[in-house]
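Can't paste images in this forum, so I'm doing it all in text. The chain is below; anyone willing to post the predicted structure tokens underneath?
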Amino acid sequence: MSLSETQYFLHLAKRLQYLNESEAEDLIEQTRATFGCPHGLIQAVEKQAGKLNRTVAAITSMAAL
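Text version of the structure:
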């Protein structure tokens, strides 16, 4: 199950009154915090990959000259 699906089911559980407002909000906040960890890692990796791609492109252009 994905984090988005988990959030959906938490909202649904709250709406169907399986969870009270406070419980649902606590769990939803935990899913947001959990999402932040891999999201930050993905952004850092993409940033490094972008730097690597620019370096490779520069080296390739210089080699073509």
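The CA atoms of residues 17 and 24 lie 10 Å apart. The longest helix spans residues 21-64.
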